[in-house]
Amino acid sequence: MSLATIQCCAPIAREPLSEGDAAELATLLKAVADPVRLRLLSMIGSHTGGEACVCDLTDAFELTAPTISHHLKVLRTAGLIDGERRGTWVYYRIVPETVNKLGALFAPLAEPATV
Amino acid sequence: MSLATIQCCAPIAREPLSEGDAAELATLLKAVADPVRLRLLSMIGSHTGGEACVCDLTDAFELTAPTISHHLKVLRTAGLIDGERRGTWVYYRIVPETVNKLGALFAPLAEPATV
DNA sequence: GCTCTAATTTGACATACATCTAAGCCTCTT
DNA sequence: AAGAGGCTTAGATGTATGTCAAATTAGAGC
């Protein structure tokens, strides 16, 4: 790691995003830019075993099952979660690699060391 | 820092977000969940001196000045950038604290150490 | 096979949003 | 003070999106 990598700002502020990268990242960000989907994501990720049943998620909101299902589909299409049917129920879990993409985009490259 | 903080997942996956926190974060994320605004943010942040003139930004897109102005306003309202008029031109710069909020939300709490 | 529950899909609707044109405001220059 | 350039605001319009009700698929158990 060179000194050049030590600076104050996130990767998004290091160099201009290409049009293509921006479009791809915007799609990912749109998926999480909703209060219900943020809560779904955090509920799935923090649930025991790292996975949650749709039934648990639906009960936690004052929304209909189709609406929750819609939001889960948006998250799954974006690659943020992955679903699996086991018997009667469907379980979702987080895809950490995709979440990390967002973390990398906004994470500061270094702490404000001595300053 | 205790051992408990060393785990695989981002803070969003640590515990369920409250309704209020989710709403606040969603507002912030909506501001960046647009390809034009992502590029604006990265162009401003990576520009020499950490600030960019609106004129530079407008020329970089095939969009009208009012549209760019609108996007800048969205970013500014979200607290992601801050603008200042100096003479004829208006300069924008990034507000790192706000960007860091997003970084903190999605950043893994620890590297996949030995695994 | 039939029924019940879990979850998704479809279609409709109201709202939110990205974009443009036209108009207005601020600053510098002449 | 009058004009010109830079930027924002206001209003209009087409598209995208969040939500629900109704219909559909899938599995479990009787």
UniProtKB/TrEMBL annotation, chains A, B:
<dbReference type="Pfam" id="PF01022">
    <property type="entry name" value="HTH_5"/>
</dbReference>
<protein>
    <submittedName>
        <fullName>Transcriptional regulator</fullName>
    </submittedName>
</protein>
<keyword id="KW-0238">DNA-binding</keyword>
<feature type="domain" description="HTH arsR-type">
    <location>
        <begin position="17"/>
        <end position="114"/>
    </location>
</feature>
<dbReference type="InterPro" id="IPR036390">
    <property type="entry name" value="WH_DNA-bd_sf"/>
</dbReference>
<dbReference type="InterPro" id="IPR036388">
    <property type="entry name" value="WH-like_DNA-bd_sf"/>
</dbReference>
<dbReference type="GO" id="GO:0003677">
    <property type="term" value="F:DNA binding"/>
</dbReference>
<dbReference type="InterPro" id="IPR001845">
    <property type="entry name" value="HTH_ArsR_DNA-bd_dom"/>
</dbReference>
<keyword id="KW-0804">Transcription</keyword>
<dbReference type="InterPro" id="IPR051081">
    <property type="entry name" value="HTH_MetalResp_TranReg"/>
</dbReference>
<dbReference type="InterPro" id="IPR011991">
    <property type="entry name" value="ArsR-like_HTH"/>
</dbReference>
<keyword id="KW-0805">Transcription regulation</keyword>
<dbReference type="InterPro" id="IPR018334">
    <property type="entry name" value="ArsR_HTH"/>
</dbReference>
<dbReference type="GO" id="GO:0003700">
    <property type="term" value="F:DNA-binding transcription factor activity"/>
</dbReference>
